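2024-03-11 09:14:02 DEBUG pipeline.ingest accepted 1 chain
2024-03-11 09:14:02 DEBUG pipeline.ingest length=744
2024-03-11 09:14:03 DEBUG pipeline.predict start
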Amino acid sequence: MKNPLSILFGILCICVFAAHAQQKNLTGYTKESADAEFKLEEKFDANLQSKNIDGWIKHMSARPHHVGSAYGKQNAEFMRDLLKNWGYDASLETYQVLFPTPKVRLLELLSTTKFTAKLEEPALKEDSTSGQKSEQLPVYNCWSPDGDVTAELVFVNYGIPSDYDELAKYGIDVKGKIVIAKYGGSWRGIKPKVAQEHGAIGCIIYSDPEEDGYYQGDVYPKGPYKNSSGAQRGSVMDMPIYAGDPTTPGYASTENAKRIDHTQAESLLKIPVIPISYGDAQPLLASLGGPVAPEKWRGALPITYHIGPSIAKVHLKLQFNWDIKPAYDVIAKMKGSEYPDEWVIRGNHHDGWVNGASDPLSGMAALLEEARSVAELTKTGWKPKRTIIYCGWDAEEPSLMGSTEWVEDHADELQKKTVAYINSDGNGRGFFFAQGSHTLETFMNEVSRDVTDPETGVTVMERRRSVDASNAATTKAKKDILAKKTLALGAMGSGSDYTPFIQHLGIASLNIGYGGENGGGEYHSIYDSYDNFKRFKDPKLEYGVVLAKTAGRATLRLADADVLPFDFKAFQKTVATYLTEVTALIDNLRESTEVENQMLKEKRYVLAADPTKTFVAPAPKEEVPFINFSNLQNAVTKLEKNTATFSDLYAVKPNPNLASLNNLLFQSERKLLGEGLPRRPWYKHTIYAPGFYTGYGVKTLPGVREAIEQRNFVEAQQQIEIVAKTIDAFNQQVEAANKLLMMK
């Protein structure tokens, strides 16, 4: 028999929790409609079943399903048919996309004892799908050009711009050489891009065991980390230029689309690139001579890391089939009962490099279960006020082609009707994360407040805040995180299917998921399998269910809100922070330039690390001129006043102009589009973009920030004025919303 005091304590806890739940508010809802929404979400949660997510991951990862594969098409048809059976208007939209696959791969070290890289991941008895060699894509980097090059080898650490600055101190030039770089430090496509800019003629990328292998833990199949044969496939398209099919830049790859030759595509590099395992990398790195690598460059292989160049030459030969393949997007619609022309779009991709259980099917299966549970709600008589569209994207892995081609194909209608796009990708055990438009920050705080973490029993918001505090570098930082009762949304760079929505069309977007306790080295390898996922990633599929609960709440709340829950104040505070950062950036650059030039004047040189090299004093840097931020500062100051007024006026009450108000709210993100960023006009958003040299990593106020970083001060001033104009346009949108809110 239970202790009566324990029972009493449990009852009190339930009562306190119930009282707290009754006090919760929902932005965009009256108290009555919020109560109804909470009850609807209880039914939604009750419908969710982890066994469905488990079964769909197992089924769809049973065979390789890359772009153009037979099983990729079968998976698309399988999902379409499920969604149709649940009551959605579901269909496949097909695009014809360029997708190169390898026919020749050769990497060899031409020493007295010749070494030829295996470039192969062996089948394992513990992994039931790893032996499907006839259907698997071999280890390669998609979008590498054909090439046959022989040259000395140089180790360039992560191969990012700062690493080449370090090489210069050693007097080492990569011109005419092949470079070998570690995965990490940036997106993989930046490594050959920077190598090409420095005159290299080939690029090799490997995963060092210090970051992804035995240094981290037991390797697969004993543990989750990368074994000595594992290798990471992946795209090396210069996606910061534009996403999608490189032969149809800015327009859809429909069957009769006019194409440019891929050799002329601005987003494709010119030097051959290949990924290899650390087992294949070790003999190459061991062949290097020259200086010992800086301590921070060294990995965990049992060798002394040298920079090079190598004495023996390396031969790299690659040839590809440059074929057009069909990409099958799954599109499923549930028509809104009150606002059918306002769309809430929810998406995840379904293509993988091989079997793809974790990336992407863990997210795709959660989306399917979410869509099934939403469909179950309609059996109770509920209908969404706004149209909900569930999407399964194909061809994401090569370059976001499925989503980008669909967005480019339907651009006008999407800009007119889409309220928001909600994205997920691979998912696993661990902590909630979210990136997105900062107009949706308050909204996502409410969503994460209302979802419970299955391991700890606290909200996913609180668990996220706790891990952020525990990882903070200082006691003050820990206290600051814990004192703040909300989560900040991360800014969006690139790397998944939200990119064309927010950065090309200006549609408010979110990217959400779970992870952090699902580490390992299966990424883009043949070992991203159901067997691996069930052992190490999310064994009980608890976090698949939690993702469905989180994204499902976001979808339902946007679909049913009386007044759309856009918070301009959160956006204003974020932009003000970005403005402070770029003004500090120019001030710091000015100060550092003055110090460096003074040191040069006084001949306080930093000598080259290699004493055999002739020292040449560097030229003084151009002085940093005055940069006028006043127009942008004024626009942000005005935005602070307008958004404060909006926050005071925002309320859900009878309003004859409700439809107009909602339209103003979801169209607000469009006002942040400019004519396009310098040298990459496909990216039109003036607040968020992937960095020119960071790939997936975001640059905020990208036009301004990158111009300053590249010391292009004329362009920096031009970009400041462009951003000021977009903030002025956003101000006008907020002012118009305020006028409508004042009406009775």
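2024-03-11 09:14:41 DEBUG pipeline.report The two ends are 60 Å apart (CA to CA).
2024-03-11 09:14:41 DEBUG pipeline.predict end
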